[in-house]
Design a protein that fits this description.
Length: 294
């Protein structure tokens, strides 16, 4: 059987006195699309850096496609887009792309790479003159230049506009459909929800949840009941309600028992105009999981 894309065992990363990753065990199979989630400082970037061999773990092991991280990177098996990824200065985008493609034995065909990453209009531009979102698209093209089987992306869409993000994730889904393993750290939870087969939630250097997004969401009890109610009536004492907020005429009630809450509201004669009941979002789930890990 071919080795997993990633196999981390007991990975521990320290930055001086700071414990960034704490005995992390994680396996990611080939072809999976995995979102690494968690608050600032959870250890996501440190994990990515260890996988790329950019820092030496304090303890534990890292295998990338069955190899040591440095070997996998040197063999062109890993494409990466890092949070603070640099581009050489005083060069044009096309020149940098050419140089990087030349370093691979079997580079991604240029026209297709340029079209896939949407950088056709940028090839003649100075890299120093790119906007944040354009820079991220160029970094993606460089990460893909060697057609790597594994892509590691650290907050890849942080500077992109809505359209750029949508195009980016469409590209990622296409890559995943072609069998590329995609691992990305993000704070855009709705994107993780839409794109990833699996989400791994980290807090304080450890995994606090791991599974399909729907499973992680369902781990959090509770629903939100939302309706329009003019006036200043309060609803925090309604059965099941654990939290009530009002914004103008819109009332949102967090409840652990939707039926009891709705029955009580109807019995009180509340009209429940524009009624909406929804389950926990991935954001609710992550907040709850991370809160519990603190
Ligand atoms: N070079 C460094 N020197 C000292 N401490 C560091 C360094 N890099 C990271 N840390 C610390 O390690 C911990 C984990 O940081 P890391 O960047 O891995 O988290 P993260 O989950 O990627 O956060 P973010 O979402 O903010 O990017 C944090 O407490 C951070 O302050």
């Amino acid at each position: 059987m071919p080795p997993d894309a990633l196999a981390l065992s007991g990975l521990t990363v320290r930055h001086g006195g700071v414990l960034a990753v704490d005995r992390l065990d994680l396996r990611i199979g080939r072809g999976e699309t995995v979102a690494l989630l968690g608050p600032n400082g959870a250890g996501k970037s440190s994990t990515v850096s260890a996988v790329l061999g950019l820092l030496r773990p304090h303890a534990g092991t890292v295998e990338v496609l069955g190899r040591a991280p440095g070997d996998a990177v040197r063999a062109g098996c890993v494409g990466a887009m890092l949070q603070h990824g640099g581009l050489p200065g005083e060069a044009r985008v096309g020149e940098v792309l050419h140089l990087v493609r030349c370093s691979y034995a079997d580079p991604w065909p240029l026209d297709d790479l340029v079209a896939t990453t949407g950088i056709g209009g940028l090839l003649g531009r100075d890299v120093d003159a790119l906007s944040g979102g354009q820079r991220q698209r160029v970094l993606l093209a460089l990460a893909l230049a060697g057609q790597p089987p594994l892509l590691l992306l650290d907050e890849p869409t942080s500077a992109m506009d809505v359209e750029g993000r949508r195009a980016f994730w469409t590209t990622m889904r296409d890559l995943a459909d072609r069998g590329t393993t995609v691992v990305f750290a993000t704070h855009h939870l709705h994107e993780a929800d839409a794109v990833a087969d699996r989400v791994v939630v980290m807090a304080a250097g450890r995994v606090v949840a791991d599974g399909p997004s729907a499973a992680v969401r369902s781990a959090v009890a509770g629903r939100t009941v939302r309706f329009t109610a003019p006036g200043a009536a309060t609803f925090d004492r309604v059965p099941g309600v654990t939290g009530a907020t009002r914004l103008g005429g819109t009332v949102a009630l967090a409840t652990t028992d939707v039926e009891a809450t709705l029955r009580a509201l109807l019995a009180d004669g509340v009209a429940l105009a524009d009624l909406e009941v929804r389950g926990a979002s991935l954001e609710d789930a992550v907040l709850s999981l991370v809160g519990g890990a603190r």
